[in-house]
């Protein structure tokens, strides 16, 4: 962990569960001794309203964001369960975290962020401009911001410590990390999930530019989809009618937060050692609305809060 890693707020105490760990957004719990789930190989994964940007967890939460992430992931798990099994066991959770938590199968997670990209942007575009490649894979010349790739690519990244950047890695590196059979399975499942999800999003007028999955191995040795899936935090969703290669597409995510943090109004140096300032109310409200809109456009119904 880097010395500038942000301090996280305390995870709430929950009856029947013992806090195990916290990431940037989620608090993870194990069954408490003697509780209903005790002795079962499950975790409670609670999505907080924390938001991260530029590798910082911000002090200002986005109300209901954790509920959007949880409900949207649950919806996608249902859409994708014939592609690969997932970790969702139950949405019956302590009332304190109702709507924002899932009881999940506990997995041994692969230390690889399984990214699929159908379009060129972000760190993929940076590497392409430097080397003409993404994760070491050569691409044709002449691509630009938001270009559609000739075919979707598996562009893995290594999970970084809290406060650090994830690092794009080559497929060969994935083979070294997890072995050839697992690497091949991760690539195949990632691309199959992307193809299915991109098709569903397209029917709703949304481009799934890229997305990240986390997979692990269940107690029975099988490959299982874990973490969150296809949320605005893990994916770039672009309104199809606003996409145009050569310019940055407006995505259903933290764009308002990033734009404000890098604007003069924030008086914040992204490359300095100070944490980002608190977000103004209108940035919070617009970001919240964007998350809720993503949920509604994808699932076809407003989120029941
Ligand atoms: N079924 C599962 N079994 C075990 N671990 C899981 C499971 N699903 C998700 N996780 C892990 O739980 C954590 C979720 O927390 P969160 O998303 O906030 O973390 P993060 O900041 O993205 O990542 P990091 O773990 O690097 O802090 C991640 O480390 C994720 O890999
Ligand atoms: Mg995460």
TrEMBL record:
Residues 20-272 form the SAICAR synthetase/ADE2 N-terminal domain. Its EC number is 6.3.2.6. It comes from the Bacteria. Pathway: Purine metabolism; IMP biosynthesis via de novo pathway; 5-amino-1-(5-phospho-D-ribosyl)imidazole-4-carboxamide from 5-amino-1-(5-phospho-D-ribosyl)imidazole-4-carboxylate: step 1/2. Keywords: ATP-binding, Ligase, Nucleotide-binding, Purine biosynthesis. One of its GO terms (biological process) is 'de novo' IMP biosynthetic process. It catalyses: 5-amino-1-(5-phospho-D-ribosyl)imidazole-4-carboxylate + L-aspartate + ATP = (2S)-2-[5-amino-1-(5-phospho-beta-D-ribosyl)imidazole-4-carboxamido]succinate + ADP + phosphate + 2 H(+). InterPro entries: SAICAR_synt/ADE2_N, SAICAR_synth, SAICAR_synthetase_CS. GO terms for cellular component: cytoplasm. The keyword 4Fe-4S does not apply. One of its GO terms (molecular function) is ATP binding. NCBIfam families: PRK13961.1 (NF010568), purC (TIGR00081). Belongs to the SAICAR synthetase family. This is Phosphoribosylaminoimidazole-succinocarboxamide synthase. It comes from Actinomyces howellii.
